[in-house]
Amino acid sequence: MINQLLHLYPNSIFAEEPTSDPNFLWYKNKDADEYIGILKTDLTQQEMKLLETLFPLDSLKNPDSLSPYIENWRDFLLFDGNIPNVPDVNCRFIHFYISNKKEAFQFEEWEEALKGLFPNEISIVPFNNSEGIIIELQTEMQMDEDELISAVEAFESDFFFKVHFHIGRFHSPNSKLKQQFTLEQSLFKLSLAKQPEERISNIEKLIPLFVYENLSLDTRHALFTEVSHIFSDDVEFFETIKRYIENQSNANLTAKQLFMHRNSLQYRIDKFIEKSGIDIKSFHGAFFVYLACLHIENE
């Protein structure tokens, strides 16, 4: 059966775990304990329904067991369905990706724990056995990032997996909502690929990386080679400046995190400014040097 699928869909790929690529649908090959990913663009709606019958859609839940409301969201976001009927209030998507799951992992148990975490009612739309979104309506009380960080620690301790979240921005439920979803999925995918140690991401955190990734190789080298030479092989110097920028020029916090005397930190900051001619205490200088740091890490 799997060989026949590969023949019918030559763009398919195999993986031990479903990836976070939103362009693929993942089906589990139980005989080989692996997954086959098929491009959504290679499948018609009728073929999708047939494959879901033959193979559990790496089921967080069998699609037949989804409520009509959740299934409408799934069809809208992943396929060509119409936007669901929703209250006339802004909503946001909190994207999630689960990895390192144990065989005994039960999505339903995690779903209940997740719902109990939020101050208001939420909707959870599963895409496959590893990823999906939480739909949260905008009210006076919202889940904040600190609460979500605490939840990550609790989830990973209780359920023995790794989970990543991307917190989207609130949007009106209009015709542009799917475009916003697609952009957020792209940013989340970028975070998973380039910053896998980050458990929580958002657009503000990812914009520098997004900007850097969209520069050509020649442009990157032309812009950042000089800064790279300043750091040369001094990893500690590099880490100090990068952390200082990430801490929004907060010298006390940076010195504390690096177990460094504040005067020593200030010496390194002044040394970098003198060598580069770039004032990293200013927004524009800090942004430029942070892009240079991303370039150095990417080399």
Characterization of this structure:
The chain is of the alpha+beta class. It has three domains: 2-57, no CATH class; 65-202, Alpha-Beta Plaits; 215-298, PucR C-terminal helix-turn-helix domain (Arc Repressor Mutant, subunit A), CATH 1.10.10.2840. 49% of the residues lie in helices and 15% in strands. The chain has helices at 2-8, 45-54, 68-78, 107-117, 145-159, 177-194, 203-213, 217-231, 235-246, 251-257, 262-276, 283-298; strands at residues 13-15, 24-29, 34-39, 91-99, 123-126, 131-137, 162-167, 200-202. The strands form two sheets. Strands 5-6-4-7-8 form a five-stranded mixed beta sheet, sandwiched between helices. The chain has a three-stranded antiparallel beta sheet with strand order 1-3-2, with no helix packed on it. Strand 7, helix 6 and strand 8 (200-202) form a beta-alpha-beta unit. Mean pLDDT is 87; it is low at 58-62. Residues 239-294 form the PucR C-terminal helix-turn-helix domain. This is Transcriptional regulator. It comes from Lederbergia lenta.
Average per-residue pLDDT, rounded, comes to 87
Rounded to the nearest angstrom, the radius of gyration is: 22 Å
Query: What are the low-pLDDT stretches, counting only 5+ consecutive residues below 50?
Result: 58-62
Helix coverage percent of residues? 40-55%
The largest sheet is:
5 strands, mixed
Shape type: globular
What is the top-level CATH class of the largest domain?
Answer: Alpha Beta
List the secondary-structure elements in sequence, H or E.
Answer: HEEEHHEHEEHEHEHHHHHH
- Find the CATH topology of the largest domain: Alpha-Beta Plaits
Beta percentage is: 5-15%
Number of structurally distinct domains:
3
DSSP strand count: 8
Trace the largest sheet across and list its strands: 5-6-4-7-8
Count of individual helical segments: 12
Q: What class would the helix/strand composition place it in? A: alpha+beta
Task: Give the termini distance in whole angstroms.
Answer: 43 Å
CATH architecture of the largest domain: 2-Layer Sandwich
Protein name: Transcriptional regulator
InterPro entries: CdaR-like_regulators, PucR_C-HTH_dom, PucR_C-HTH_sf
Domain PucR C-terminal helix-turn-helix: 239-294
Pfam families: HTH_30
